[in-house]
Amino acid sequence: MNLLLRLWRSSLGKKYVMALTGAALVVFLVGHLVGNLQVFGAPDLINQYAHFLKSKPLLLWGARLGLLATVGLHIAAAFTLLSLNRSARPVAYATGGAYAATSRSRYMAVSGSVILAFIVYHLLHFTALNPAVNGVGDFTKLTTDLHGETVPDVYAMMILGFNVWWVAAFYLIAQALLFMHLSHGLAAMFQSLGLRNHVWWPRVQLLARVVSVALFLGYASIPLGILAGIGSRYAADARARAHLAAAPSSAATVLAVGPASAGKEVVR
Ligand code: HEM
User: Is the CB of 126 under 6 A from ligand 1?
Assistant: First the structure.
């Protein structure tokens, strides 16, 4: 315990904390992406997966609390390191070059803050199912039959959710920022762990770039695929069954329900 506290108090220790929590968050992002990509399969696939996660409350809450602690430690370490850097050198350098690290860490703080705002929005959107933030209505009304059991229709929530253009746009912007944050953060992680030398550094940077581009493409494919029309007929039916307002006439809605009915309220 004492050793952990001493480690946390040193700036090297905080760099280790940033690196290890960052690595854990990347593992979460890969797992979350694999789970979410199931939206490209049949509706039952992702509904069954979401139902499985919800049916294991101990596992779910353990993972949620672990994730919360990880994000909290990552942010705490980032801000204490940033303020240590500032107090060590209160006047900014006028030039870039080797000192561009300062503006990079400022950029990391800004992109990290937008990602945090996105996570708060995302939790209200898909975990708390708050109707005020989704532009569609009460997602809890979207249910489906899974092997004789009524379960939340996560598939319909995702399709209807991303058919709202500003929701899809916000996700894409946040994912682009996440990609840039990761691209630098992943390389910095190896550096913090002492793996920087002239042979390995270009490889580490390439690996960081490849992983972050792959994650970006994977995540962006979801709102983009949905805007292109995936699952639109299914979601239009689910929306009608749940008596939710029709989405603004996006291309996918018009294709699924026809131009005449797109944009009209479904009568309760
Ligand atoms: C297209 C992109 C994404 C989709 C479709 C998506 C979908 C979802 C869904 C459906 C849930 C609710 C799970 C549930 O409670 O049943 C969820 C939860 C969550 N997502 Fe995402 N997600 C996306 C991107 C992201 C990104 C980029 C991050 C992190 C930066 C993220 C972090 C989280 C977290 C922390 C949770 C809470 C997990 C929980 O409820 O325990 N998601 N996501």
Answer: yes
Is the minimum distance from the CB of 155 to ligand 1 under 6 angstroms? no
Mean pLDDT for 138-152 is 95
Query: Does the C-beta of 139 come closer than 6 Å to ligand 1?
Result: no
Rounded distance, CA 252 to CA 229, Å? Answer: 4
Ligand 1, residues 127, 163, 179, 222: which to mutate, most atoms within 8 A of Cβ?
A: 127
Give dist(CA 226, CA 154) in Å, integer.
14
Class of domain 2-90+106-257: mainly alpha
Domain boundaries, the chain: 2-90+106-257
Nearest-atom number in ligand 1 for the CA of 53 is 16
CA-nearest residue, atom 30 of ligand 1: 119
Question: Is residue 64's pLDDT more than 80?
Answer: yes
- 97 or 74: which leads in pLDDT: 74
pTM of the model: 0.86
| Strand 143-146 versus strand 149-152 pairing type | antiparallel
Give the integer Cα–Cα distance in Å for 1 and 3: 5
CA distances from 147 to 35, 44, 62, 115, 235 (A): 20, 10, 27, 37, 19
What pLDDT does 246 receive?
65
Q: 32 in ligand 1 pocket by Cβ < 6 Å?
A: yes
Residue 266's pLDDT band, with cuts at 50, 70 and 90, is very low
The yes-or-no verdict on residue 258 having pLDDT over 80 is no
Residue 263 has pLDDT above 90, yes or no: no
For residue 54, what are the contacts with CB-CB under 8 A and spacing of at least 6? 60, 152
